[in-house]
């Protein structure tokens, strides 16, 4: 599903936290949203999963204004792993992931055998099968994060919104979560702090700076030393992974002299 931000501003006070964002995400692309703390990443994502209405501009899902579509249609199309802790901590892991199926049915409809199979498959793919009967409230941060990813996958979305999906995850699960997201073939918009993971997985990187889209493009072009210094206040460079050939980002403290 194609996603377009057309002059989107959004925020919490009269001063917008995101200003005049305009960019189109091609269908099936993996787009990483990067930027320092407070640069507006979560704010921009909230305008897509309808947690925060833009004060100006439009968000288009395909060619439709997302904020004018029925809520349920958006829930069926857009899968979300958000940053704030969702309620429902009395749910078991299985129940929590099953919630991802409800936009396709209606809240109190019984899940079909096919739904149950999707839930099982998503638990499995996120490494959560062993956790299925546990209460969500008893999980570690990383386990919980994997359950939330499984729920977003259970929605079978056409657009996947991930706000720091690798938060709390160990190295194995950081990689498997992004591999999984990339393998779905749907459009992914993921806020990531690791520029190295962004470089490895994203076709396109959007750099937010003080609420504005500062730069957009492929990782090898975007993560140039001047940008890393200016936006992230670190020295760094892109190198080729000797094994996979993917771009990798190496960071160093500012002003450490190289050879
Ligand atoms: P990021 O996700 O890039 O770290 P956010 O989008 O969360 O940044 O925040 C952008 C700006 O909006 C920051 O200055 C932040 O303090 C402010 N902000 C975020 N959430 C709220 C809120 N609920 N109420 C008021 N200000 C907020
Ligand atoms: Mg954030």
TrEMBL record:
Q: Which organism is it from?
A: Amycolatopsis samaneae
Question: Protein name, please?
Answer: ABC transporter ATP-binding protein
What is a single Pfam family found in this protein's UniProt entry?
ABC_tran
In terms of domain of life, where is this protein from?
Answer: Bacteria
GO molecular function list = ATP binding
- Residue span, ABC transporter domain: 3-235
PANTHER family in UniProt: ABC TRANSPORTER ATP-BINDING PROTEIN, HEMIN IMPORT ATP-BINDING PROTEIN HMUV
SMART domains xrefs: AAA (SM00382)
Keywords of the record: ATP-binding, Nucleotide-binding
Q: Which PROSITE patterns match?
A: ABC_TRANSPORTER_1, ABC_TRANSPORTER_2
User: Which InterPro entries does the UniProt entry name for this protein?
Assistant: AAA+_ATPase (IPR003593), ABC_transporter-like_ATP-bd (IPR003439), ABC_transporter-like_CS (IPR017871), P-loop_NTPase (IPR027417)
């Amino acid at each position: 599903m194609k996603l377009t931000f057309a002059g989107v501003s959004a925020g919490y006070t009269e001063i917008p936290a995101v200003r005049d964002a305009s960019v189109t995400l091609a269908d099936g692309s993996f787009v990483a949203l990067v930027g320092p703390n407070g640069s507006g990443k979560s704010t921009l994502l909230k305008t897509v999963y309808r947690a925060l209405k833009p004060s100006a501009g439009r968000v288009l899902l395909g060619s439709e204004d997302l904020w004018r579509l029925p809520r349920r249609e958006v829930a069926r199309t857009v899968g979300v792993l958000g940053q704030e802790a969702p309620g429902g901590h009395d749910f078991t892991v299985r129940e929590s992931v099953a919630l991802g199926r409800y936009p396709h049915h209606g809240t109190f409809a019984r899940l079909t055998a096919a739904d149950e199979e999707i839930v099982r498959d998503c638990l499995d793919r996120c490494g959560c099968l062993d956790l299925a009967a546990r209460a969500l409230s008893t999980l570690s941060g990383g386990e919980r994060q994997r359950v939330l990813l499984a729920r977003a996958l259970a929605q079978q979305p056409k657009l996947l919104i991930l706000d720091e999906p690798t938060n709390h995850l160990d190295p194995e699960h950081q990689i498997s979560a992004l591999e999984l997201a990339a393998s779905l073939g749907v459009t992914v918009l993921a806020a990531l702090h690791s520029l190295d993971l962004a470089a490895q997985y994203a076709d396109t990187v959007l750099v937010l700076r003080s609420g504005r889209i500062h730069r957009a493009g492929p990782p090898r072009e975007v993560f140039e030393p001047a940008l890393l210094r200016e936006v992230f206040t670190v020295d760094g460079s892109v190198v080729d992974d000797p094994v996979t050939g993917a771009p990798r980002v190496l960071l160093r403290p500012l002003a450490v002299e190289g050879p």
